[in-house]
Description:
This protein has 81 residues and is mainly β. The protein is built from no helices and eight strands. The chain has strands at residues 22-23, 30-31, 36-39, 46-47, 51-53, 59-61, 65-72, 75-80. The strands form two sheets. It has a four-stranded antiparallel β-sheet with strand order 1-3-6-5, with no helix packed on it. A four-stranded mixed β-sheet has the order 2-7-8-4, with no helix packed on it. Strand 5 and strand 6 form a beta hairpin. It is elongated. The mean pLDDT is 92.
Amino acid sequence: MAHKKGLGSSRNGRDSNPKMLGAKIFAGQDVKAGMILVRQRGTRFRSGPGTGLGRDHTIFAKRDGKVDFRTSGERRTVSVV
């Protein structure tokens, strides 16, 4: 005889933490070297002049200046001018 009631196990009781992805700085804004411009999964945006690409595809500023987003066909690039 079972001593406990046969309850179904919950199969969807998990949730992941938010990853805070997306553009952190927008076109025309002033940035300092080292500031994060875009956090992304894969290279949705490509790094242009004045920016670097981190190991997790984060784009950051390598020098002080203004942010510029450009689109050429399917490619979107972020640069610091």
